[in-house]
Each structure stands twice: as C-alpha cells, then as structure tokens.
Amino acid sequence: MSFYRVVVVGVGYVGLTTAACLASLGHHVVCADIDEAKVAALREGRVSILEPGLTELVAKGLAAGRLEFVVGARAAVGEAEVVFLCLPTPMGAGGAADLSAVEAVIAEVRGLLPPGCVLVTKSTVPVGTAARVTELLGRGDVAVVSNPEFLCEGSAVDDFMHPDRIVVGSDVQHAAERVAALYARVGVPTVLIDAASAEMVKYAANTFLAMKLSYVNAMAELCERLGADIADVAEGMGFDHRIGQSFLRPGPGWGGSCLPKDTHALLRMSEAAGFDFSLLRATIETNEGQRDRVVEKVRAAVDGRLDGARLGLLGLAFKAGTDDLRDSPALAVAHRLREEGAELVAFDPAVPAAVVGVTDDVAVVSDAGQAVKGADAVVVLTEWPEFRKLDWADMAGRMSGRVVVDTRNVLDQDILGLANLSVIGIGR
Ligand code: UGA
C-alpha cells in the first residue's frame, strides 16, 4: 500500500470531505483555501458544514498530523504528488459552468507544481476541461486527471468511504493509476477511462437522477388524476432491479447545488455541440412545472385566496439532513407564494431563525409551533423526519385553517386526521 502527499485546493464540502477521508486512509493531506477565517477555524478542528462524521475525521487527521490547513494554493503545492482541485464551478452566463476559480488557481500554481505531480479535477467541470487545463498548464511533466465525486450532502463521508464506484479519467496511464491507488483501501470497482468520458460520467449520472425525479413527479400528477398512489406505484416499479427503489420519492421538485446546475450546464453543452437534447429540456421544464403544481395545491388549501393568506412553511433546506439552501425547491415555492401575496413564516430544524437574508420572502422562526401559529394552511417542503413526530393536535390548535399540504409525503395522514386536519399530499 502506498501513501501519497496530497494537496486539496478549496475546502468547501467536497474538498473538506475528500481531504479528511484521504487523510483517514493514510495519506498526508494539505488543504489550501483563500478564506483565512475558514483556514484558522479548521486548524482548530472547527467545521462549519453540517455533515455527519466530518468533524470527527478532521479532528483525527489533525491529531495524527496527516491533515494540515494553509492559506492559498501557492503555499501548499511545492511537494505535492497529487493536487485535487475542489473549487466551485457555479452556473455562469446562460447556464454554462463558470470556470474562473479553476483558471485562477491554475495560473497561480502552474510554475510551482513539482515535476511528475498529478493535477486532479474533482469539481464538476464541462467535458473537455481536462484537455483545457492541460493546455493552460503548458507542462509536459504534470499530468491531468478527472476524478468526479459522487458525494451526497448529508452522507458525504459515508459515500466517500463506501462508494458504488470510483471513476478516474486520464489520457496518461501512470497518472490515472496513481489517483486510483489513493483509493486502494476503499476497495470498490474503479472505472479507468479517458478524461472526457470521466467528465461526462458525472453529468450523465446527475442528469439521469434529475430525469428519474422529474419522471416520478410527473407520474405522481398522473396518479392523482387517475386514482393511483405514487408510493405504491414506485414500490412496485422499484423492485425491478433495472429501475431500483431509490430516487423515486416525489416532492416539490429537485434542487440543491448540483442537479439544477448540472442539468443546465449539460443542456448548454449539447446546444453548443449542435444536439437538441429535448429529453433533458423536458426534465428541467417538468421540474419548473412541479413548483407551480405545489403552488396550486396550496391555493386549493386556502380556498383559492393566496393573497393575504398566512402560511406556515415547514422546511427550507433543499433536502433533509442538510442546512444547505442553495437552489432549494422550498425557496422557489416560497417565492412564488409570496408573489401571489401570501405571508410566509417558516421553520427548518437546521436553519437558525437568526439567519438573516436567507430570503426576502419568508420570516424564519425557531420552532414549528411559531411557524404554524395562526396559519391558514401549513406547507411541508423538506422531508425532515421530525415533522412527522410533531404533536399535530397541538399544531392544529395553533392553526386557524385545517389543511396541511405535504409536498414530501412525510406526514402520517391518520394522526393528522385525528387532529381534525386534512392532508393534501403528492401523487395520492
Ligand atoms: C447529488 C447527487 O445525488 C450526488 O450523487 C452528486 O455527487 C451530487 O449531487 C453532486 O454533484 O455533488 P445532492 O445534491 O447532495 O447529490 O442531493 P440529492 O440527494 O441528489 O438530492 C437532490 C434533490 O432531489 C433534492 O432536492 C432532493 O430532495 C430531491 N429528491 C431526491 C427527491 O425529491 N426525491 C428523491 O427520491 C430523491
């Protein structure tokens, strides 16, 4: 087993998880970030991201002397054998990925990378970026590898340690083998392919998941219209191993920092390549439509009068288990409701009431009771299990209306029924 000197540039959730997990596998990892306050906090083991197991792994890495944090990539790369770029690639103009952070770091380190070092792109980057990075580097002695990540927020450490597969793409064999060797102890199939294909795997996987969700949300609508129950339909479909049970839960539409960004970016790439990927466009349109369908359910819950209606929102995060609000469907729905004149008070177990500027659309409070107080209707937007366990008789007593819209199908309809509340779910 070989251990390597690794540098991770960018300690966001992907970078920090990658660094802490690689350190726990025995590698020596130096993390570089331009945010001085973040580096200072991490040196003391303070992790600001809500990610199970991550704080413990960072503490272990620091204690073992295998994890270090420095300000700026320049200070980190001098002795690196492998450098991971874990930088943000946000949605830029017209939906294409914005690569300016990646380009800036390459400009900064290109003269400093030691000969024989391997540069790895881990961020989701457009197909062809490894080739572009090779060109920008202009160094025949530094190879470029694409090693996309498949971490889900809320289970990132577990996903890293127990992935379904590892994808390593490079046109330089020995560089790909070194990156694959970093993961030797993880012990799962490694797909060794060319760099462009590895970059495409990431988009293909995320957009396929988005398509699966748009399909199930559209199917949920049809179930409602034809008198079927989406939960039963999904279970019946999911036992077919070619389909699988996961990613078949309907909701207010998919969101988060990855699926929306990646679907738009792939659509842009296909347009640029002269291909009309209508299936992908429909996937995005169906997702937009899902938010409108949720608004219509809420309208029905307040007898058609959204203007002036007081609504209690349960959940703001884009999914349960995270405090991440980026591209959250809950915020998109809230925005539409606000545009129609509704007054919104929201509670999310992971989003503190003190968070200012979350959104101009909602007032955030610190418990569910306050959110539903005086509400004409309540809308569940994130599938936090604690919403199911609320004292719904007590909630009913605080509400002025009698309807709860459950966009995640997490509530127990019988229990709410006993509290004299009716539930409008999705696809049932
Ligand atoms: C997603 C992918 O699942 C990861 O494999 C990938 O590594 C990651 O993006 C990334 O590119 O970094 P993540 O954004 O953390 O992970 O979130 P998901 O768990 O995929 O959820 C995405 C959205 O779909 C959420 O809004 C979630 O609530 C929704 N969803 C998911 C459903 O509505 N129903 C489901 O059955 C599953």
TrEMBL record:
The active site is at C258 (nucleophile). It holds the Pfam family UDPG_MGDP_dh_N. NAD(+) binds at D33, K38, T89, T124, E153, K261, R326. GO terms for molecular function: NAD binding; UDP-glucose 6-dehydrogenase activity. Keywords: NAD, Oxidoreductase. GO terms for biological process: polysaccharide biosynthetic process; UDP-glucuronate biosynthetic process. Substrate binds at F150, L151, C152, E153, K202, F247, L248, R249, P250, G251, G255, K319. InterPro entries: 6-PGluconate_DH-like_C_sf, NAD(P)-bd_dom_sf, UDP-Glc/GDP-Man, UDP-Glc/GDP-Man_DH_C, UDP-Glc/GDP-Man_DH_C_sf, UDP-Glc/GDP-Man_DH_dimer, UDP-Glc/GDP-Man_DH_N, UDPglc_DH_bac. SMART domains: UDPG_MGDP_dh_C. It is an enzyme of class 1 (oxidoreductase). Residues 312-413 form the UDP-glucose/GDP-mannose dehydrogenase C-terminal domain. Pathway: Nucleotide-sugar biosynthesis; UDP-alpha-D-glucuronate biosynthesis; UDP-alpha-D-glucuronate from UDP-alpha-D-glucose: step 1/1. It catalyses: UDP-alpha-D-glucose + 2 NAD(+) + H2O = UDP-alpha-D-glucuronate + 2 NADH + 3 H(+). Its EC number is 1.1.1.22. Belongs to the UDP-glucose/GDP-mannose dehydrogenase family. This is UDP-glucose 6-dehydrogenase. It comes from Saccharothrix syringae (Nocardiopsis syringae).
